[in-house]
Amino acid sequence: MELDNQQARARAWFEELRDRICAEFEAIEREAGSDAAFAYIPWDRTDASGEGGGGGGGGVRGVMKGRVFEKVGVNVSTVGGAFEGDFAKTIHGAGDDPRFFATGISLVAHMANPHVPAVHMNTRFLVTTRRWFGGGADLNPPLPVAEDTEEFHAVLKTACDAHDPAHYPRFKEWADDYFYIPHRHVHRGVGGIFYDHLEGDFDANFAFTQDVGRAFLDVYPRIVRRRMDQPFTADDVGQQRAWRGRYAEFNLVYDRGTLFGLKTGGNIDAILMSLPPVAHWD
Question: What is the CATH number of the domain that holds 219?
Fold first, then answer.
């Protein structure tokens, strides 16, 4: 699959960010006395029916299970093809021409210690008849701590403010609206930022998307190190597993990224890596 300059630059950044994040997460495992490391599993794109073809591409699924990170997935994919049927009408710029290109990074971490917040981060570049960036990051603590929530938001706000003072309030509200579980009447976590359809000036929007990734790499490992040795109880684990059930409900019922991956022939294990390793429902 041939890429133009913008597509190649975006893919290269997402792969670089993946490598930097995974190295940092492995360093945290070393600090905890663990030799856990990411396993990288490449995959090739199939179409939505599972028969293959349709523009090609693929990705690499990175998974680590360790002492601190009970389960963390960091995936990079670069795919192209054509949306099928009416699904094309739901995608920005694909209503009249279903052809698409997408490259991005997606990360979900579920932590062994209930005091360490789970986290989600995703940034992506899509091309239809339009070209745009989207993504964001949000913190998902089973046992929320104000210090962690405030620092996470402060770092993201700084990244946003460097590009446009209107970004943070707009993208924070977007995250609050998006990461909500209507049937439970609760938010999935303590929020962050979420943005989509950021188009026009490629260089400016690419720079912002890169800064979102750098902000995540700055703040999240610091929160992990702060909480990973904190004592916890069986009740804390119970609350963590119940909260994970809510997380799974959102990702399976409402998350647009899950649907996009399934509709575009993505790797099933990579798409569902967001699901927690252990959860429970009352």
Answer: 3.40.1500.10
Q: Catalytic residues, which ones?
A: 120
Question: Global pTM?
Answer: 0.93
Query: Using CA atoms, how far apart are residues 264 and 11, in angstroms rounded to an integer?
Result: 18
Residue 129 lies in a domain: yes
**Separation of alpha carbons 15 and 23, rounded Å:** 12
Question: What is the extent of the structural domain holding 119?
Answer: 5-274
CA nearest 139: which of 160, 156, 158? 156
DSSP 58: E
Inside any domain, residue 44: yes
Q: Is residue 281 part of a domain?
A: no
- pLDDT grade for 51, boundaries at 50, 70 and 90: very low
| Long-range contacts formed by 19-24: CB under 8 A, 24+ apart | 20/217, 21/74, 21/107, 21/216, 21/217, 22/62, 22/64, 22/74, 24/217, 24/221
